Amino acid sequence: MAANAYLEAxxxxxxxxxNPEVDKKEDPLEGIIIPPQPKILMELKSCGGKIDKxxxxxxxxxxxxxxxxxxxxxxxxALRARVNSISKAVQLLGLDSIxxxxxxxxxxxxxxxxxxxxMEEFWDSSTDVAKAAGxxxxxxxxxxxDTAYTAGLFHNCGIPLLLQKHKNFYDILxxxxxxxxxxxxxxxxxxxxxxxxxxxxxxxxxxxxxERVCLAIRYHHHGNAFLKSDKFNQDLKVxxxxxxxxxxxxxxxxxxxxxxxxxxxxxxxENVLDVLDMNKDDYENTKEYIHETVYA
Length: 296
Fold this sequence. Notes:
The protein has 18 helices and no strands. By secondary structure, the chain is an all-alpha fold. It has a domain at 3-18 and 115-294: Orthogonal Bundle (Hypothetical protein af1432).
């Protein structure tokens, strides 16, 4: 199917999902609880950039505060000396980076599921993708590191939410990772009339993330239909391609799909690298750097 025709079909499906006149019994979002934006994020955004107030709010939440310190001392940020206070973290990294980290911590706290083993695999995978996306953005200098990190962290947040309603969701997900025709999303929609990328998009909209992050997450499994479409600007395609490359490097096809081969990369990898203006050597160097340094 041509890229534009494919996207038009998706837009029609999205309109049906968003139509308030659809009978609730047929609403694919029925039974899926999308968590509201946490209070601390709303409070941080209402500070008007006042650093002292931001530091105070973060320090009041012991869990968030500890998580911020742990994250900024990871190889992703490559700081020369260990940071032991929120004030120093804000001073060194700036507000955008701190908000990105708090978003990440708040997301995990907001989404729970009784499938503990699978959820640990999910969170580990999401964190790996986020770190890879941030590192790719830093190396290519084509998009903001914190924006890429946030997109990486949120990109699959629809998965645990769909598990709330569909206990067999992981079985269908593994079938989708096996597909070699680029029909990942159609396999999910065929089973549930909805897909995890769309649910993730809904979460991001509700949490007031940037439109670019929301759309990159919405279309991150749409391959060439997204990358080659003339309906999206280059900045959005760069963020989407960064996310696709991060998923490949983080090997979500193994961790979530249980597959040895990344079928999506076989189909779309060349175009992902084209969008990011990377050759094969750039790709290999970036992959090696992330596995040996960022994941250390």
